[in-house]
């Protein structure tokens, strides 16, 4: 895509979903992936993704240079939690910008938090990732993972001319590996990548999404 398309774009919601039924798998069972606990929940839902996503993450890890690892921050997010995140951000934006219409608020909110009805995290299709060195140090990516647009002053988008050359190279390294295995990124968040969801289908020209929203059941 040459244009910047947000999750709130009406075209995304029109993409049909033909869920293939793949299970949600726990990435913590894979020794080659490092899982960060910052978004951990009591059921461990955050550490799950669809099988096809996990397979691609393992392949992406193999494409990285020696000494560089993927750091998995968050995968699956229950629909109720996604709705809570989105509505809270909408409320914050409306309070800060009372002159905005509801449509303007939703569009601005969707630059950072996906509308709940199409959220790829709730389908187990999305992952938030960064890179770490062999000693566990997070590489410079220009901002922290999940930095908001206001906090980051707009440099969360991958091109970001105002970040350092080192951060730009690290983003390119992450992006090249994930793109090579079929994932797509949301243009306003360098850390957010997905496969099989409606946004992926729109980005790749697929006829339908293969993953739709799922409720999580802990295997424990």
From TrEMBL:
<keyword id="KW-0479">Metal-binding</keyword>
<comment type="similarity">
    <text>Belongs to the peptidase M15D family.</text>
</comment>
<dbReference type="InterPro" id="IPR009045">
    <property type="entry name" value="Zn_M74/Hedgehog-like"/>
</dbReference>
<keyword id="KW-0482">Metalloprotease</keyword>
<keyword id="KW-0862">Zinc</keyword>
<keyword id="KW-0378">Hydrolase</keyword>
<keyword id="KW-0224">Dipeptidase</keyword>
<feature type="binding site">
    <location>
        <position position="128"/>
    </location>
    <ligand>
        <name>Zn(2+)</name>
    </ligand>
</feature>
<keyword id="KW-0645">Protease</keyword>
<dbReference type="InterPro" id="IPR000755">
    <property type="entry name" value="A_A_dipeptidase"/>
</dbReference>
<comment type="function">
    <text>Catalyzes hydrolysis of the D-alanyl-D-alanine dipeptide.</text>
</comment>
<keyword id="KW-0961">Cell wall biogenesis/degradation</keyword>
<feature type="binding site">
    <location>
        <position position="192"/>
    </location>
    <ligand>
        <name>Zn(2+)</name>
    </ligand>
</feature>
<dbReference type="Pfam" id="PF01427">
    <property type="entry name" value="Peptidase_M15"/>
</dbReference>
<feature type="site" description="Transition state stabilizer">
    <location>
        <position position="77"/>
    </location>
</feature>
<protein>
    <recommendedName>
        <fullName>D-alanyl-D-alanine dipeptidase</fullName>
        <ecNumber>3.4.13.22</ecNumber>
    </recommendedName>
</protein>
<feature type="binding site">
    <location>
        <position position="121"/>
    </location>
    <ligand>
        <name>Zn(2+)</name>
    </ligand>
</feature>
